[in-house]
Design brief:
Order of helices and strands: HHHHHHHHHHHHH
Helix content: over 70%
Structural class: mainly alpha
Keywords: Membrane, Transmembrane, Transmembrane helix
Number of helices: 13
Protein name: Integral membrane protein
Pfam families: DUF975
Length: about 260
């Protein structure tokens, strides 16, 4: 019998119920990525306005030559570093949301929750899985953009699988490539469903932008927690179940990609 999964409305309702009376906790947990996102939007807006002002008073051909001077690739790489760190912080926040959804216990430190991925238990695995998943996605995108996007969705749950496997047995030697493979298998038939779930927040994103970013203080935790509700519903407890020590370990191959 085919398993039934929660609808988008059901996932969102679960999160709203979880946050009832605890919105302050949810907002403070997400305060760092929310503030950085708002600052980023302000900076981008300021840069665009400056470029428009400069182009209005500069010869177009000269402006083009200056724009494509040789420092672009270096600055682009440097710009990825803050984004990568922000991604790790968001991952830690999502770990905390996942625990909260499962335990229904809001008695935790928002500060510790925001930086939970930087703990000894999680950091190396979270860091390497993010690197590997990004690398594999990039390699697929070299072929065509669409396969890269599809693979990005396929690998999207790898870090949460790693968390579950590590929480299940902190002493276990969890394979990072195996987590990516399991994510690909888990998302088989569910990639479009996750895409539509993300797309369902588009209207709220527009409204949050029109509020000069203030709406993101509530929207960001709502979105992140809903994505964790999606994982919780999809994975269940299959990665939290104790396996026998005598069970053979699967050999990990390039099937991860």
């Amino acid at each position: 019998m085919e398993r039934e999964y929660q609808s988008r409305a059901s996932l969102k309702k679960e999160v709203k119920s979880l946050f009832a009376g605890h919105w302050g906790k949810a907002v403070t947990l997400n305060i760092i990525p929310t503030l950085l996102s708002i600052i980023g939007v302000i900076i981008v807006g300021a840069v665009l306005m400056a470029m428009i002002a400069i182009s209005a008073n500069t010869d177009p051909s000269m402006a083009a030559n200056e724009s494509f001077s040789g420092h672009s690739s270096g600055s682009s790489f440097a710009g990825q570093i803050p984004s990568f760190i922000l991604g790790l912080i968001t991952l830690g926040i999502n770990f905390t949301f996942l625990d909260w959804l499962r335990s229904k216990d809001a008695d935790f430190s928002s500060l510790k929750g925001a930086f939970s991925v930087f703990s000894k238990r999680y950091f190396l695995g979270a860091f390497l899985i993010r690197i590997l998943a990004s690398l594999f996605t990039f390699l697929w995108a070299l072929l065509f953009i669409i396969p890269g996007i599809i693979k990005g969705y396929a690998y999207s749950q790898a870090s949460y699988i790693f968390k579950d496997l590590t929480d299940n047995d902190p002493q276990a030697d969890v394979s990072f490539l195996d987590c990516i493979t399991k994510s690909r298998e888990l998302m088989n038939g569910h990639k479009f469903r996750f895409f539509v779930l993300q797309l369902s927040f588009l209207g709220w994103d527009i409204l949050a932008g029109l509020s000069l970013g203030i709406g993101y203080f509530w929207l960001t935790p709502y979105k992140n927690a809903t994505y964790m509700a999606f994982y919780k519903d999809l994975a269940g407890d299959q990665f939290l179940q104790t396996t026998s020590a005598d069970e053979p370990t699967e050999e990990v191959t390039v099937e991860a990609i």
